[in-house]
C-alpha cells in the first residue's frame, strides 16, 4: 500500500515589518530563508506541502502601513524574492486566492502567478487566463493523483473586473460541487482549501460547518481552512475524511487589533 505524507500550513502573511527584518543592508534584496530555518526540514520531508500565500508578489518593495482609502483594509505586497525561498524550503503548492489577492490589482495578481511559475511553484485559486481557470490542479504524488481546489469568500471589497470573473475563485457551493464532480473522475484524493470563516473566532460558524458537510458529500476528502488567523477545530468523519476549519497563521506578526474586514 502506497502512503503519502501531506504537510499543510495556514496563512503566509508577510507584511512590511517582516520584509524589513530580512532586508539586506543597502540593497533591495531580502533573504527570507531565516524565517523558515526551523520548520524547513518538516516542509521538505513531506511528499506534498501546501500553504496559503496571503499576499501578492510584485516588485521588490513591500507596502508598509498602507490601507485602501475606500475600505480601510490593509493592502499587502511582498518582494518577489519570497518565491524562491518558499520553493527552497519545501513548498510545492500555494493557494493564491484569499481576501488579499487583489491588493495590487489584477496586475499584481497576474505578476504573482508569473513569479510562482518562474520558481516552479504550483498554484491554484487565481488564474492568469480563462483557459487556465478551467484546468483543475492535479498533483502526481508517488503515483497517487491528488486534486486540489481553492476558493475565497471575498476580496476585501476590491471588485473583480466583470470581464475577468474567472480570475478569482469565489466560494459558491454549487460551483465547488460541480468542480469536485469533474475532478474526482480523474483523482484518487481531493483537497479543498477554503478561505472562509470569521477572523479571530476560535470556533467555526454555521456557514462553515454547512459547507464542509456538503463538500464531504460530494467528493472532498480533505478540507483545509484559513482566514480566521487563529486555529479552529479539526474533525474526522467515520469514513476517514478530514477537515481543519482554520490552520491559523503560519508566518505573521502578532495581529494586535481586529482590522475592519
Structure write-up:
The protein is an alpha/beta fold. A hairpin with a 2-residue loop joins strand 5 (137-141) and strand 6. The longest helix is centred in the middle third of the chain and has 14 residues, at 105-118. The protein has one domain: Purple Acid Phosphatase, chain A, domain 2 (4-Layer Sandwich), CATH 3.60.21. 25% of the residues lie in helices and 23% in strands. The chain has a six-stranded mixed sheet with strand order 5-6-7-8-10-9, covered by helices on one side. A five-stranded parallel sheet has the order 4-3-2-1-11. The protein starts with 5 loop residues before the first strand and ends in a 10-residue tail after the last strand. It has helices at residues 16-21, 33-36, 40-45, 82-88, 105-118, 130-133, 173-183, 206-217, and strands at 6-12, 48-53, 93-95, 122-124, 137-141, 144-152, 189-195, 222-226, 231-236, 242-247, 249-251.
Biggest sheet record: 6 strands, mixed
Which homologous superfamily in CATH is the superfamily?
A: Metallo-dependent phosphatases
Helix content: 10-25%
CATH class: Alpha Beta
Question: What is the domain tally?
Answer: 1
Architecture per CATH nomenclature, i.e. the level-2 architecture: 4-Layer Sandwich
Mean pLDDT: 94
Please compute the radius of gyration using only Cα atoms: 17 Å
Strand order of the largest sheet: 5-6-7-8-10-9
What portion of the residues fall into strands of 2 or more residues? 15-25%
Structural class: alpha/beta
The helix count comes to 8
Regarding quaternary structure, what we see is single chain
Q: Could you name the ranges where pLDDT drops below 50 across 5 or more consecutive residues?
A: none
The CA-CA distance between the termini, in Å, is 46 Å
Please name the CATH topology: Purple Acid Phosphatase, chain A, domain 2
- H/E series: EHHHEHEHEHEEHEHEEEE
Amino acid at each position: 500500500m502506497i502512503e503519502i505524507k501531506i504537510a499543510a500550513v495556514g496563512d503566509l502573511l508577510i507584511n512590511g515589518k517582516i520584509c524589513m527584518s530580512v532586508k539586506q543592508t543597502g540593497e533591495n534584496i531580502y533573504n527570507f530563508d531565516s524565517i523558515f530555518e526551523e520548520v524547513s526540514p518538516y516542509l521538505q520531508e513531506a511528499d506534498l506541502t501546501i500553504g496559503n500565500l496571503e499576499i501578492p508578489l510584485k516588485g521588490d518593495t513591500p507596502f508598509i502601513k498602507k490601507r485602501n482609502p475606500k475600505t480601510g483594509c490593509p493592502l499587502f505586497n511582498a518582494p518577489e524574492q519570497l518565491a524562491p525561498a518558499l520553493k527552497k524550503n519545501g513548498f510545492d503548492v500555494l493557494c493564491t486566492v484569499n481576501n488579499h489577492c487583489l491588493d495590487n490589482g489584477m496586475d499584481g495578481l497576474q505578476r504573482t502567478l508569473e513569479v510562482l511559475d518562474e520558481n516552479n511553484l504550483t498554484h491554484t485559486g487565481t488564474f492568469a487566463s480563462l483557459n487556465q481557470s478551467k484546468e483543475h490542479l492535479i498533483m502526481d504524488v508517488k503515483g497517487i493523483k491528488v486534486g486540489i481546489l481553492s476558493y475565497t469568500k471575498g476580496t476585501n471589497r476590491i471588485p473583480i473586473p466583470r470581464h475577468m470573473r474567472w480570475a478569482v475563485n469565489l466560494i459558491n457551493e454549487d460551483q465547488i460541487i460541480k468542480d469536485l464532480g469533474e475532478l474526482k473522475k480523474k483523482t484518487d484524493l481531493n483537497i479543498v482549501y477554503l478561505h472562509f470563516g470569521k477572523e479571530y473566532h476560535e470556533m467555526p460558524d454555521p456557514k462553515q460547518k454547512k459547507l464542509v458537510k456538503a463538500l464531504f458529500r460530494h467528493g472532498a476528502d480533505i478540507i483545509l481552512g484559513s482566514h480566521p488567523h487563529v486555529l479552529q477545530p479539526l474533525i474526522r468523519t467515520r469514513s476517514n475524511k478530514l477537515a481543519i476549519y482554520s490552520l491559523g497563521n503560519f508566518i505573521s506578526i502578532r495581529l494586535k487589533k481586529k482590522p475592519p474586514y
